[in-house]
Amino acid sequence: xxxxxxxxxxxxxxxxxxxxxxxxxxxxxxxxxxxxxxxxxxxxxxxxxxxxxxxxxxxxxxxxxxxxxxxxxxxxxxxxxxxxxxxxxxxxxxxxxxxxxxxxxxxxxxxxxxxxxxxxxxxxxxxxxxxxxxxxxxxxxxxxxxxxxxxxxxxxxxxxxxxxxxxxxxxxxxx
Length: 175
Hints:
three-stranded antiparallel beta sheet, globular, two-stranded antiparallel sheet, 175 residues
């Protein structure tokens, strides 16, 4: 029974608590401490012990790094997160900072120091943040665009192939 509670606590912390800690990370020492506490928490998923950080990076790799030749079950690293971050849009593809996920959440640089925080932001936002709410209530979607969107012309950007991320993958159903 304790193992189930441990898994449930890990799953819950990937939601609201983690999203709140990341949102206040730059302005609050307590939020930073909570972020690191949650990310380093050990949980058991399908009989395998891992940290919340490992679980988040595995889910991020599965959802957003499918064209990067990672082996199944691999963790997204700094290079994979940095390369995919500009491919994530909320609702529509374009340069509007309200729709470009990375710009909306003020991640001008993604590197070894914060790649896991960006991945955790995306996953916790999908699970329990405003993105989850807008998907469920307003029908917005997190869209994954094509490689190198910064190099696309306006016409190419408008015609790019976009993939909507389904909340069902994260254990919750959106509308």
